[in-house]
Amino acid sequence: MTKIVILTGAGISAESGLGTFRDKDGLWTKYDLDDVATPEGFARNPDLVHDFYNARRKNCHEASPNAAHHALAKLESEFDGDVLIVTQNVDDLHERAGSRAVWHMHGQLMRARCSACDHHWDAPLEMHAHAPCPACAENTTRPDIVWFGEFPFYMDQIWDALRAADLFVSVGTSGNVYPAAAFVQDAARAGADTLELNLEPSLGAHDFANTRQGPATQIVPTWVDEMLSA
């Protein structure tokens, strides 16, 4: 049975209207990352951090999965093999498109967690610094997001999946954020074929056996159709 591991990044959700770090006029440009995307920033000003993620959550709630998300869900549903999505994105567009095997290595925007007891739950559209944890009642609610300086989720499982993969595909990633930037090398060393689908070549494009460039909503459905007709 063929095992496919697909890494997705901000480029797959950009066409749904969700901004990236690199957007010139996006939400990220209005904030200092040290203030809203680090544990230290949250400790200094939790209200600011919650305001930022409330805005991102609203943006995500109003967005819809695009053709690339739907194509990957179709691949999982119809492919005669295993398909796993490892995403750097914190949005829920893969799930809303119908994908079920999705690992969010950087956390989930629509989830909350407790800094005191590590309980996780579905986040309301608006979260507040003094909202009590539903499990322990401590006022330590935070977004269920992996901030700079924190360790990504699922890493042991991801490395195992990469080393068991027959094909590794990277979709819409910049190729300069570790540990995800090393996934292609690890998969290739274990014998997997590798493919990059991106708007333009990433910094690590030379590590892939094959690359294709173009908007995710065009090249991902085309590739999925090829896989399903092979």
Q: Helices and strands in order, then pairings?
A:
Layout: E1 2-8, H1 10-13, H2 33-36, H3 39-44, H4 46-62, H5 67-78, E2 81-87, H6 93-97, E3 102-104, E4 107-114, E5 120-122, E6 141-145, H7 155-164, E7 167-171, H8 183-189, E8 193-198, E9 210-213, H9 216-229
Active site: 106
Family: Belongs to the sirtuin family. Class III subfamily.
GO molecular function, one term: protein-malonyllysine demalonylase activity
Key structural traits:
230 residues; alpha/beta; Rossmann fold; SIR2/SIRT2 'Small Domain'; six-stranded parallel sheet; 9 strands; 21% strand
Explain how this protein is built:
The chain is α/β, with parallel strands linked by helices and 230 residues long. It folds into 2 domains: 136 residues, Rossmann fold, CATH 3.40.50; 78 residues, SIR2/SIRT2 'Small Domain', CATH 3.30.1600.10. The strands form 2 sheets. It has a 6-stranded parallel beta sheet with strand order 3-2-1-7-8-9, sandwiched between helices. The protein has a 3-stranded antiparallel beta sheet with strand order 5-4-6. β4 and β5 form a beta hairpin. The longest helix is centred in the first third of the chain and has 17 residues. The two termini are 14 Å apart.
